[in-house]
């Protein structure tokens, strides 16, 4: 198996646990198509628009259907649990492609939470939910790899070693990434990756 020298794309000295919107892409090991299938109704093939508002040269693509595999359904449950288990994290837009996941994750500032009665009848202050993006994804990959190993009786990771992330620094970039995620299944079908 070849060794890939991946470029380190993370910002130097940036705190990936602080408030912010993060775009992540997580790929399956060997780009195996294990998470979903993408199909298109043959009667609704992409066509050129005749709508003058859209423009006559604009390509109008039908909306493909993304169907999760049984493993993909388990992975989706774990994806939602990122938000459930980390009160300062919100899962925003995402898509499960056959061999990767694209998603936008919001990490909010964690608050100091005061428990009125702790175990010893006095107030306890604690900071909850302070997690880095890398920690969140590491836990997600670990849990889903265990599910994968149990389902398929294999002894390898479900995921590639690393993942891609980008700090979203503007509203314009946020919308650009949102649209990219929204239309990723269309691009998949149009490239003929059925």
List descriptors:
disordered N terminus; 3 helices; alpha+beta; 10 strands; globular
Structure description:
- This protein has 194 residues and is of the alpha+beta class.
- It has one domain: Transposase IS200-like (Alpha-Beta Plaits), CATH 3.30.70.1290.
- 29% of the residues lie in helices and 25% in strands.
- The strands form four sheets. It has a four-stranded antiparallel sheet, sandwiched between helices. A two-stranded antiparallel sheet has the order 2-5.
- Helix 1 (70-85) runs antiparallel to helix 2 (133-152).
- The two termini are 25 Å apart.
List the helices and strands and how they pair.
Elements lengths: L19 E8 L8 E4 L7 E2 L10 E2 L4 E4 L1 H16 L3 E8 L3 E8 L4 E4 L8 E4 L5 H20 L11 E5 L2 H20 L4
Antiparallel strand pairs: 1-7, 1-10, 2-5, 3-4, 6-7, 8-9
Q: What's this entry about, in short?
A:
By secondary structure, the chain is of the alpha+beta class.
Which value, in Å, is the CA radius of gyration? 20 Å
CATH fold description: Alpha-Beta Plaits
The CATH class: Alpha Beta
DSSP helix count? 3
Number of strands: 10
Kindly report the average pLDDT value: 80
The CATH superfamily label reads: Transposase IS200-like
The domain tally reads 1
Helix content: 25-40%
Secondary structure category: alpha+beta
**H/E element sequence:** EEEEEHEEEEHEH
Summarize the biggest pleated sheet. Answer: 4 strands, antiparallel
Strand content: 25-35%
